[in-house]
Amino acid sequence: MLDSNVVLEAFGNAKTVRNDNSSRFGKYIKMKYDDSLTIIGAKTDTFLLEKSRLIHVDDGERNYHVFYQMCAGHSSRSVLPATEYKLLSQGNTIKVNEGVDDKEEFMLTKQALNTMGVSEDDQLRIFDLLLGLLQLGNATSTMGEDEKATVDFAPPPTVGGAPTPPVSLATIAALFGVDPTLLKNAIVIRMQTSGRGSTTSIPLTPDQALNNIHALIKYAYGATFSYLVSAINAAHAIPSSTATTFIGILDIFGFEIMRTNSFEQLCINFANEMLQQQFNQQVFVLEKVRYEDEGLTTDTIEFQDNQLVIDLISKKPTGLFITLEEHGMMNRKPDNSALLTNYHKNHDQHPNYAKPRFKGDNFIVKHFAGDVTYDITSFIEKNNDSLNEQLVLLMKSSSVKLIQDTFELATEEPAKEEPKDAGGRARNTVTARGGKMAQKVTVSSIFRVGLEALVTQLAQTNPHYIKCIKPNAVKLPGGFSNTMVCEQVSRPFFLFPWFTFLSLLIDI
Predict the structure, then answer these.
(1) How far from chain centre, in Å, is Cα 295?
(2) Within 10 Å of residue 121's Cβ, how many Cβ atoms?
(3) Beta strands 26-33 and 22-23, pairing class
(4) Residue 500 and residue 268: Cα distance in Å, rounded?
C-alpha cells in the first residue's frame, strides 16, 4: 500500500506555487480488514485528474512529477533533459526544490511499479508512451501549400546552447506502435461519414490539428493513469467475502480561490460544496436531532445550508454544468462568450450568482467559503474529454499490447443513462460512424456521476473528520505563522486545499 502511494504521487502529483507535492486528483481508499482487524487488502477509486496541466502550466509550477523523473533517470538516450520539452519548461521550474532528486525519485517509482506487478517490459512501454507525449507537446502547426495543416516537433529554444533538431512524426509513431502515415492523417484530417455511408476527408486548420494533438496527450495520459490505478487495485484485490470491515480515507482537494479561477476550480469547489453539505448533515442536523431527543434546546444551533449553490451548479435544466454540457455538444467552434451570456440570462436573479462589476469574461459564484470569480475562457474546451474516433481506433490497433490494453480500458466505461432535454429528447449526443448515437464525453458529467456515488456511500458511514493545519506559507520546516494558523482554525472544513481531508471509519 505504501508503494502504491509512490506510484500515485509520481503520476498524479505536481509542484504548485502553494505545495511542492500537490495532489492533482481526488482519491478514496478503502483499507479492508478481516475479523481479527488485520489489514488484508484495499481498493482505490480516483477522480478528476487535472488533465489541463498536461498542456498548460503556470509560472513557478511543474507538470506531473513522473515526466521530470523520467528525464533525469531514464537510461534511454532518446530521453532529453526536461528543458527540451515545452510541456515541462513552460512553468520555468524544472526542480521541485533542492531536497528532491528526480533521478532518485525515478528509481523509487520503478521499484514501486515492480511491487505493483508492472513488469519491466510494461514499464518501458509506459515510459515510451510518455516520451511520445512529450515529443507531441513540442508540436507547431502551419498551413501547407496544399491547403492542409502540417506539423513540426521542434523543442523550445535553449539559452546559450546549440538547438536540438526536431523529431519526426515517424519517431513518435514508433513509440506508439502505430503507422506514421495513419497517425499524421488522424491529426490533420477529419473523416466525415454521411447518412448514406460515404466518407469524406476534410483537411483541418493548424489550430484544429494542434487541438487533436493536445486531446491525444490528455486522453493518453489519463488512460495511462487509469491503467496504473487498475494495476494497483489488482495488486490489492482480495475475495469480497473475506473482508468484514474497512476504513475509508477520502483525500481530496480543498476549496480553491486562485488568481485566475477556471473550469478546474469550479469542479473542485463544487466537490467541496457537496462535502460541506455532508459535513453539515452529520455534524449539525443529526446532532440536533440527538439533542432534541434528549430534551435539550437547539434554537441557538445555526449553520449555513448550501443547497442553493449546489443547485446553481448542477440542477437541471439550467445548472452551470448542465448548460456547459449542452454547449459542448454543438458541432461547431466552441463559443464560451455565448455560454457566459446564457449563464447571466439564466441566473441573473439567483442569490448565489452575480455578474462582475465591469463587463468581461467572468461570472461570480457565492460559495459557502466565499465569493469566487471564474474566467469563462476555455470552459467548453476543458470540459471536452473525448478524442476523435480516428485516433482512438489507431491507438487501439497499436503493436504495443500495453497501449492496446490502456486504450481499451479507457473506453470500457459503463454506459450512463442518456440525458434528456425538456421535451424528452436525448441530448449530449453526437453522430458516430455507422449512424449510431454515442454520448459525448464531458469531464463535468463524469465528475457529477462519480461525486454523487461517493456522497451516497459516505452517507452510509460513520465519519470522523481530521483537520490538518499548515503552519507557514513558505513550505519550510520549523516556521510558524500565528495569523495563518488562527485563520485556518476558525474557517470551515474543506476550505483550503493544503490542510484538509476527510477520514471515514466504516463498518460493513
Answers:
(1) 48
(2) 11
(3) unpaired
(4) 13
Per-residue pLDDT tens over the stretch 341-352 = 999 999 999 999
Element (H, E) at 182: helix 180-188
Question: What dihedral do alpha carbons 271, 276, 278, 279 form, nearest 10°?
Answer: 140
Closest to 441 in 3D by CA, of 388, 379, 491, 498: 388
Residues in the chain: 508
> Which domains, ranges and CATH numbers included, belong to the chain?
2-135+223-257+452-507 (3.40.850.10)
Cβ count within 10 A of residue 160: 4
Q: How far apart are CA 501 and CA 400, in angstroms?
A: 39
Alpha-carbon torsion (120, 121, 127, 131), positive or negative: positive
Per-residue pLDDT of 451-473, as tens digits, reads 888 888 888 888 877 777 889 88
For residue 191, give the C-alpha cell.
473523416
Cα 477 to Cα 472, 480, 481, distances in angstroms: 9, 9, 12
Q: Give me 443's grid cell.
A: 469531464
Segment holding 362, helix H or strand E: strand 362-367
C-alpha span between 260 and 361 (Å, rounded): 11
Instruction: Evaluate if residue 51 carries a pLDDT over 70.
Output: yes
Residue 264: HSE in the Cβ half-sphere, 13 Å Cα cutoff: 18
pTM over 0.90: no
The secondary structure element, H or E, covering residue 503 is strand 500-507
Q: What is the distance between the alpha carbons of residues 459 and 439, in angstroms, rounded to a whole number? A: 30
Burial 166-194 (b: 16+ CB within 10 A, else e): bbebeebbbbbbbbeeebbebbbbbeeee
Label residue 414 exposed, middle or buried (CB < 10 Å: 0-12, 13-18, 19+).
exposed
Could you give the CA distance from residue 340 to residue 347 in angstroms, rounded to a whole number? 11
d(CA 237, CA 1): 11
Q: What does the alpha-carbon distance between residue 411 and residue 46 come to, in Å, rounded to a whole number?
A: 16
Q: What is the DSSP letter of 364?
A: E
Distance, CA of 59 to CA of 91 (rounded, Å): 4
Q: Which H/E stretch holds residue 446?
A: helix 443-458
Asked if 319 and 311 touch (Cβ cutoff 8 Å), the reply is: yes
Distance CA(428)–CA(385), nearest Å, equals 13
Which of the 8 DSSP states describes residue 299?
T
Q: How far, in whole angstroms, is CA 44 from its chain's centroid?
A: 16
Those residues whose C-beta lies under 8 Å from the C-beta of residue 98, and which sit 6 or more positions away, are none
Cα-based angle 299, 302, 305 (whole degrees, multiple of 5): 130
Q: Is 435 exposed, middle or buried (0-12, 13-18, 19+ CB in 10 A)?
A: exposed
Q: Which of 61-65, 204-208, 256-260, 437-441 has the lowest mean pLDDT?
A: 437-441
